[in-house]
């Protein structure tokens, strides 16, 4: 009986040691991964990595991780110049959930069999992609507020107008901003002049290879675009 108690105590102690070692190894790998993780086709700034599942060491030994959550900021395209007008939309942050991540030799690369997540476009970046003199902000109730100044030749003066606009996806990689209504105020051609400033379409710049846009939501913090894909490659 005493021998059985000793074995139980040893099992508990060893189990505790294994858990501690497993968690320490997880912390070390996550910290190193944050300095190395890169999506193919884009450059990124800071990164946060969270590896899910327990035990971690058995996943590492099998070179396959069940799920890895990655958040990267300041996303830019590698080796691609902006369009002539510099009006593409920059992604400020990507929050991705990577499933069934196969690790490459030396753990310097990896491939996720499936990925889902959210790409965020800030209002500052949306404003930067709009026409000169136009600002974009949250308008409430899933709309954006677009404000711009136009010159009305008929009146020979400038007018500043704000409109509430709907944001949608147009095609595979383009965001469309369209004013719901533009009051004409009885001035001929005013609506057309306002729409030339406030309505626009911009291509998303910086979407990692393999990820596709699915749907878009307007939030107080910016545009949140759902993305998904398969066979997503990561590397240094």
Provide key terms for this protein.
elongated; alpha+beta
What's the SSE blueprint?
Elements: H1 2-36, E1 38-39, E2 42-43, E3 47-52, H2 56-61, E4 64-73, E5 76-77, E6 89-90, E7 93-103, E8 109-121, H3 123-129, E9 135-140, E10 143-152, E11 157-169, E12 174-179, H4 190-198, E13 200-205, E14 211-219, E15 222-235
Can you walk me through this structure?
With about 240 residues, the protein is an alpha+beta fold. Helix content is about 25%, strand content about 45%. It has four helices and 15 strands. Strands 1, 3, 4, 7, 8, 14 and 15 form a seven-stranded antiparallel beta sheet that branches. It has a six-stranded mixed beta sheet with strand order 6-13-12-11-10-9. The longest helix has about 35 residues. The termini are far apart. About 5% of the residues have low confidence.
- Please count the helical segments: 4
- The H-and-E topology, N to C, reads as HEEEHEEEEEHEEEEHEEE
Quote the beta fraction.
over 45%
Terminal Cα span: 55 Å
The residue-averaged pLDDT reads 79
Structural category: alpha+beta
| Beta-strand segment tally | 15
Assembly state (oligomeric): single chain
User: How much helix, percentage-wise, in residues?
Assistant: 10-25%
Shape: elongated
Low-confidence stretches: 9-15, 79-85
State Rg: 25 Å
Summarize the model shown:
The chain has helices at 2-36, 56-61, 123-129, 190-198, and strands at residues 38-39, 42-43, 47-52, 64-73, 76-77, 89-90, 93-103, 109-121, 135-140, 143-152, 157-169, 174-179, 200-205, 211-219, 222-235. With 236 residues, the protein is of the alpha+beta class.
